[in-house]
Amino acid sequence: MNGGCSIKVLGLVGSPKLDGNTSRLVSAILEGAAENGAETVIYNLASLDIKGCDACHKCQEHGCCVIDDDMQELYTEIRTADAVVIGSPVYMWQITAQTKLLIDRMTAFLRSDFSSRLDNKKLVLVFTQGIPDRDAFKPYFEYTAGLFYYLGFDVLDTIIAAGTDNLEVTSRPRLLEKSRDLGKLISASNLPGTRYRRAESSLTPSM
Ligand SMILES: Cc1cc2nc3c(=O)[nH]c(=O)nc-3n(C[C@H](O)[C@H](O)[C@H](O)COP(=O)(O)O)c2cc1C
Asked: Which one of 92, 95, 169 would you pick to mutate in the ligand 1 pocket, going by the greatest count of ligand atoms within 8 A of its CB?
């Protein structure tokens, strides 16, 4: 997909903490992918200049957004990635504002008939939350996965790290190891698609 020989895995972190729980989990997935020979790239959305969609709808015609900001670089990164990992902490029961800006601007991947320009691009979602009950936001994570399907992604897996305020992911070696394993999995060149959505990872039960 990226024009080279290796699989490219792109990580997008929606936490303002550059070295927080979300960033560490996304990084662990990318580490696993790199161990498997993949090219990996990671961005922290809070460090980028990403403006809100201004609803001009010009992108629907040609797939190009007219706003000249760092999203232009991310459009290219997403288009050329074989797999994308998007991580967000839960803020006020939802994804962070930084992650929402990214998603709104992804409207450029939709045509005027709302079909997607992305060809079932592989996606892994990572959510972190302070509350220890890992089911607390499950319907919301399902809903969010559904949104990414609509945008043209194939959501392979969703990692939920619950209770991170009391127990940071750095103290959870199993979760980090499973994240690295997931990175190896998504960087396999012959990975079949799922075409259905999952609210939680089959690889990371009760962690
Ligand atoms: C403004 C704000 C709002 C938050 N809202 C929630 C919430 O609604 N539910 C929850 O479980 N945790 C909430 N949290 C906790 C974060 O989700 C949690 O600390 C997360 O692991 C932070 O990820 P990070 O280390 O990558 O920044 C909130 C944290 C902040 C700063």
From this structure: 92
Q: How many CB atoms lie within 10 A of CB 9?
A: 27
Q: Residue 159 sits in which domain range?
A: 8-12+25-50+60-186
Q: What pTM was estimated for this model as a whole?
A: 0.93
Residue 9 Cα to ligand 1 middle (Å): 26
For residue 32, the domain's CATH number is 3.40.50.360
> Nearest C-alpha to atom 3 of ligand 1 is from which residue?
91
Residues 6 or more apart whose CB falls under 8 angstroms from that of 152 comprise 109, 110, 116, 117, 118, 119, 120, 121
Say yes or no: CB of residue 87 within 6 Å of ligand 1: no
88 CB near ligand 1 (under 6 Å): no
Q: What is the pLDDT of residue 119?
A: 85
Per the structure, the count of domains in the chain is 1
Whole-number mean pLDDT of the chain?
92
